[in-house]
Design a protein that fits this description.
Length: about 270
């Protein structure tokens, strides 16, 4: 099933050539969010960002257990923000519209209750890398390249890049990445801790499938609770309180009963998300 995120305002001719779709696997367990503006290297616009946020809202309300974020085309994941759409906004427009809209969209991806995987199959620059950083996992083609080159344009990473890159690679390497505009290959991104796994492009989907299978093998509620606990801990929330509450919720599920029975019977568990 393919559902196009509903735009909040009428589309121009240019906007009609760009879209965000949500597609579900036959069993409904995996939702794939696809950003399609391949003719412009998937450069991000305000309407695309609004549609991305709407897609995230749809998916988080669905029964999907895992979210895959992809982009159209076969050479570029996303070149980032469309310069022609923000260059003339001015200070107020940049503050009020451009940066705020990007943060709303990427924060909606980061806040998904389901784990998310960004599939980086080509260049991911600027906002394109920031989009990937908003996901829980990043699987990247070995020959792909990522960078945060905004200082070369006279601006800064404005959609969470300074915060999320620092969280992943530390202060010193985040400074190197942003201040020198260094480009990393997929393999280097893994070494730095910026990506989860790298594989040659023709093996990328198989790598994503293995990671997806590992995630989906866990009890859905327990997986989603664990994701939220980790994010809360990163923000300084006390685990002794939240883990007690989450454990109590997990203890009320059929999945815990099934998991214990499977362990005792030495068989795979069959979770039902109940």
């Amino acid at each position: 099933m393919s559902i196009e995120a509903t735009p909040v305002t009428p589309r121009t001719t240019e906007q009609a050539a760009e879209r965000v779709t949500v597609d579900y696997s036959p069993d409904g367990h995996t939702a794939t969010i696809l950003i399609d503006r391949a003719s412009k290297l998937n450069a991000l616009t305000l309407s695309l960002l609004d549609d991305l946020a709407a897609a995230a809202r749809e998916v988080t309300a669905s029964s999907a257990r895992l979210v895959i974020v992809r982009t159209a085309g076969d050479k570029v994941f996303c070149v980032g923000a469309d310069i022609n759409h923000f260059a003339d906004l001015g200070a107020a427009g940049m503050w009020r519209d451009w940066i705020a809209t990007g943060h709303r969209a990427f924060d909606a991806i980061a806040a998904l209750r389901q784990p998310s995987i960004a599939v980086i199959d080509g260049l991911a620059f600027g906002g394109g890398l920031e989009l990937a950083l908003a996901c829980d996992f990043r699987v990247i083609a070995s020959e792909a390249r990522v960078a945060l080159p905004e200082t070369g344009l006279g601006t800064i990473p404005g959609w969470g890049g300074t915060e999320r890159a620092t969280e992943l690679v530390g202060r010193a390497r985040a400074k190197e990445l942003i201040l020198t505009r260094r480009q990393l290959t997929g393999d280097e991104a893994v070494t730095w801790g910026l990506a989860t796994a790298a594989a040659p492009k023709d093996h990328l989907d198989a790598t994503v499938a293995r990671l997806s299978a590992d995630i989906l093998a866990g009890a859905p509620l327990a997986v989603q609770l664990s994701k939220q606990l980790i994010d809360a801990a990163a923000d300084g929330a006390p685990s002794r309180i939240l883990e007690a509450l989450a454990s109590g919720l997990a203890a009320a599920t059929d999945d815990l009963t099934e998991g214990v029975a499977a362990f005792r019977e030495k068989r795979p568990a069959h979770f039902t998300d109940n």
